[in-house]
User: Fold this.
Amino acid sequence: MEHTNWYKDAVIYQIYPRSFKDSNDDGIGDIQGIISKVDYLKKLGVNCIWLSPVYDSPQEDNGYDISDYYSIYKPFGNIDDLKKLIGVLHENDIRIIMDLVVNHTSFKHEWFKKAYEDKNSKYRNYYYFKKGKGKNYNKKPNNWTGFFSESTWTRVDNSPYYYLHLFAKGQPDLNWENKEVREEVKKILRYYLDMGIDGFRCDVITLISKKQDFKSRFPKVALTGKDAFVNGPRLHEFLHELYTDVYKDYDCMTVGETVLSNVKEAKELVIPDREELSMVFNFDHTNVDNYFGIKWIERKFKLKRFKKVYARWQKAMYECKGWNSLFIENHDQRRSTGRFNTSLDPKYKDLSSKMLATTYFLMQGTPFIYQGQELGMTNADLKTYDDFEDVESKNMVTLMQNNIFVRPILKKSLFRQSRDNARTPMQWDKSQYAGFSSVKPWMKVNENKNYINAEDEIKDPVSLFNYYKKLIDIRKKEAIIKDGKYIDLNSKSTKVFAYKRISNNGEIIIISNFTNKVVKEKLLSKYKDYCVLLSNYENKDNINLRPYETMVLKKEKQNEHN
Ligand code: ISL
Ligand code: CA
Assistant:
């Protein structure tokens, strides 16, 4: 099957089903709810959705813990609903990629249940069970720590054995060394591709291969053992195997969530000849406001650092002909409004959100929009520990309760960084539950639904929503955005982000003021003859940029002037 690389022309909208739209008044979003909003997606102009997990799951990690890959979590609907959704989307020329969570399953998966109960079951080898150390095996097999601030080992009741989980206890890691596990994964892939799914967002795909020594590693502040479980020795081999045995037969795409990978490692996953993944989803730019990639340790945002990260990734991907994703939000990140130097001040909120949107959207790669981002939705109003829903946040609370030394440092950053911030119900209108549901939703609706909601945004011609529509249009019209080379125009400026996209088709300039002050900018006079494709202010000045001003400029072809 020929691969058309359609994903290079895609604008992908991420749906977190639990919080998108409730169709049957139980307070939980569902697939029928998504179907009822396809016209909204169409209006926005996106041409692909990424559906966060809808599979059957005990929801310890909101679906990133799957107990049955072939059925749907009941409150979300059933397989027929999913088929209907695929059909309706396709009729509207919108593709759909699903979340593929195969680094781990849920501990309620049949495979794990059998493995846990019976040491001699063949499923034992689907996971990692290792004997503990010391007298009575009371010590864990090694000192690794996982992503949710706890040991990666949980003991099997009344047994010397422990099982490995890089995430929560309810998310045991699959043993990819076992060929049978890989065959199971291929079966899942084919099942959904044959159903009409257009591709997969591959959850924590850089963790699937582990160094097999299972030795303790030098202790780290977080993620001790990561050199043994990130970008492991057989990662490339496993991905290539999935490609040759499955992906190559479908015109599908794969986007790998490449946690903890640097540019060099990421490139190796997407160089087309290697036949592994279509694109990567990296976090270097979302780590600019923390230290050591640890989100709990806050670091002041510096524009120069932000630009440097983008320049590095843009250059690397262009040169290796790989492909990147462009995003500023997802279900694991706090909202971008109020982040990356943008402002929550009502005077500047919209202006600065448009500015950030323009800046990331027109680079090379496939842009993603996380639900509500197009409305300028803001962080959840989290006040007490009881407000947390997310397993990661709850684990942090336990950690703080057990360790008074870390408490003062972590408390503030927990509220600031909790993943719950991005998971509040979608704000459709001003009604009591924001049009998400007619009953009290599973998570509290943000009070600001009264002035941040889809209904108002759609009506207002200069809203953020309508601005995103224009950005999407520009991407559709201008081939330079897809193919052009990226050139940083003023890497030294601490206030202005400016870059050029250039190809045989011409050039496009993006200039953004990341401050709330007027800034003198030489580039304005340099490009004064270029025409303005889009801006968040009405008339352009050729000397100064106004607070959070952003513009997209294009050099007209010579003959177009005549
Ligand atoms: O959000 C994070 C921690 O603060 C990230 O490190 C996150 O855990 C990492 O990006 C992996 O995320 C993905 O896999 C997790 C799941 O909880 C996330 O929602 C998912 O996006 C385990 O499946
Ligand atoms: Ca529902």
Summary: The chain has a mean pLDDT of 96. Residues 146 and 400 are 16 Å apart (CA to CA). The radius of gyration is 24 Å.
